[in-house]
Amino acid sequence: MQRINGRIVNSLVGKITYSGDSKDDKFGINITADITVANDESEIASNDHVYRIVDDIGSLKGEELSDDEKVMGFAARGQNYIYLDKNFDGTTATHETFHSAGLKHIKDEIQSGTFGKPIKKIGNHFQSFSTNDYSGNLMHQQRDLKKFRTSNQGNKLTKWQLTMIESLYSNKKLNRGKQKTDD
Question: At the N or C end, where does the chain have fewer CB atoms within 10 A?
């Protein structure tokens, strides 16, 4: 467990960068991590974030995957549980942690102007971002990037993403209660 603990902490601390909109943007990101191992559900407080290390997230979620696909992590937006495959790699723990903090995949975000996002409409409908938008952003999904043969995932977050997290937290839409096991 110490090895996994170290991998999670190392993927979070000092790895996220801010992709500012202008040179005048003064925005800092400081992430700290204090991870302990819980031996029982009763040791988990309602505001704790929980990393669950599992053998097969795909089957846990009921997904049918091809032989060359593997789900390395899963976290529901705004909830404080994070599932990681026992062999998670790269930015998986960080990416899933930011789902827990309320962020969606870039391709699932709507260009609506909220939180300072750009606005893009066709007719009366706001458009989604694509896997080509925000190169180097943490919230690109590996599966999409492989599918479209792009390498846009990185460790950057935008001002609108950080503003969204701050708003969700301030409006008590994050960390909503003690985690429950699915068994």
Answer: C
